[in-house]
Amino acid sequence: MTPTKIVAYVAQVPDGIKITTLLEELGLEYEMRLVDVSKAEQKEPWYLEINPNGRVPALTDVLPDGQLVKIFESGSIMQYLVDRYDKNHM
């Protein structure tokens, strides 16, 4: 697996599953953080700093220069992962 500093904020919903499936297919190391939507955890201030829409999924990544990238919406997350990590379009 390729080492990264990716954290995937997901729940057991189709959009969250898509993100973790793509991370696995790309062979990337990542931390998975389950968001408890039954307790409205996605509306807590710490999560809203990552995703102001207060919805799951979201993803953070740290670039080589140390910059923290925050991405939300499953389509945007998937596009980011492919653009950044799938250079050979496997």
Automatic annotation (TrEMBL):
GO terms for molecular function: glutathione transferase activity. Gene3D superfamilies: Glutaredoxin. Its EC number is 2.5.1.18. InterPro entries: Glutathione_S-Trfase_N (IPR004045), Thioredoxin-like_sf (IPR036249). Residues 3-89 form the GST N-terminal domain. PROSITE patterns: GST_NTER. Pfam families: GST_N. Keywords: Transferase. SUPFAM superfamilies: Thioredoxin-like (SSF52833). Belongs to the GST superfamily. This is Glutathione S-transferase 2. The lineage of its organism: Eukaryota, Fungi, Dikarya, Ascomycota, Pezizomycotina.
